[in-house]
Amino acid sequence: MLTLADLHPLTAYLTQIAHLQSASSVLSWDQETYMPRGGSGARAEVLATVQGLAHERFTAPEMEELLWRWIDVDNGTILDPEADAPARAVLREVLRDYRRAKRLPTPFVSHLERTCALAHEAWLGAREKRDYALFLPHLTAIVTLKREEAAYLGYSETAYDALVDAFEPGMTASRLTPLFAELKTALSALLARIMDSPVRPAPLPAGPYDAQRQLAFGSLLLSAMGYRFDHGRLDQSAHPFTTGFHPTDVRVTTRVSAEDVTSSLFSCLHEGGHGLYDQGLDPAYYGTPLGEAVSLGMHESQSRLWENCVGRSIELWRHFYPLLRQAFPGPLARVSLEEFHAAINTVKPSLIRVEADELTYNFHIIVRYELEQQLIAGQLSPADLPQAWNEAMHGTLGVTPRDDGEGVLQDIHWAHGAFGYFPTYTLGNLYAAQFWQQAQRDLADLPTLIEGGRLDPLVSWLRDRIHRWGRTHSSDALLRRITGEPLNPEHFMTYLEGKFGAIYRLA
Ligand SMILES: [Zn+2]
Fold this sequence. Notes:
By secondary structure, the protein is mainly alpha-helical. The protein contains 21 helices and three strands. The chain is globular. The site of zinc ion has 4 residues, from helix 10 and helix 11.
């Protein structure tokens, strides 16, 4: 029987490639946190070289020789029918990655990487000046390259499918479009009821909230969640993110606002959820697909579960609100727990995705999904994007950006060439709600535990069912294994209706 140990020549080769990828991740982390702005040109060159090397090694003849030792070159089946589950999963997933990578020529990958690094810098300048024209030539180049990439990768229905598959394997526009349409209808109905409610939660006082205390409180929350600081650290960046070089070195960042304490609190909970997933991967599988997350949607389900299902619950704040008040006695002195809970669950249509509440957030995603699909299909020109964006925002949420800074230039994703990424955020919300309901079933006293500040049983539940498996199971298979059913958006609606029904006193 073939076991994972028998695949040692392959896993050792993959580990070297993982080292290059970890090195590249350190450089990217540094680029977002401590690198001087002037270093961006040189950094783009270094990243292009390192990522090019990783791609070259992964698509080298040695790799092919290794794969065909265990896989039938003609039909992709595993030669040993008795191979154990981990060995099968590694071979299946490596073959998937290999086939995707092999279709992309190395010069194309380097060119795309360099184009995106320069676009990132141009996007920063354009956003600062709120001038889309500065970004337009870069975005035009990226859209052309992404269409080229889809053509290299191949697809059966639409070019977009080839791109979304990189982030959410197996996902297609023909699954997303009806799913999002159903969700849009249900969310619109709930939003209308909330907007009709006479309840209007008061906003939290606008500070001042001391930056160092915010970072200390963020660390407190992260520690309570089980995020290990001996295997991680917390820094500041313009856009909060998580990056893992290895399960023993997983870094999270947050942003800090003197006027809005929730920005940092919920960034820490969100990134902490991502961080727990990466720290929970099995180090023994580092370098293999079993040491990697299933998909971006699944990764996002972990951050959303902590940020929203746990992080915006009354139970969590019964424990932590007294401590938060102690940390910020000035601004929070007159805010009760119930007022705080209502404030952090305020639903209001707005312009900025990352500041949106957990209901209207999904409209921001659906707008981006529809626009990026049109860009890739060639139905929308990048030159016409700002107008299309503003119309879509007005059409779905009834808000119109005053300029492109609070419109089309707000997100980094397209500057990074990440087309097909946005849907994974809403998929993450849907997965999270489905897991959350199951966790409440499996851990009967979960609300009481959370009220007592005991988050470890939930962490263990997530580790055991999701984190430690890496890519052993697909997103679909994992959902079925854990919850007994395929992706079902009704769980998300039930969760939202339960929470907002109580806060907004809906009939
Ligand atoms: Zn996230």
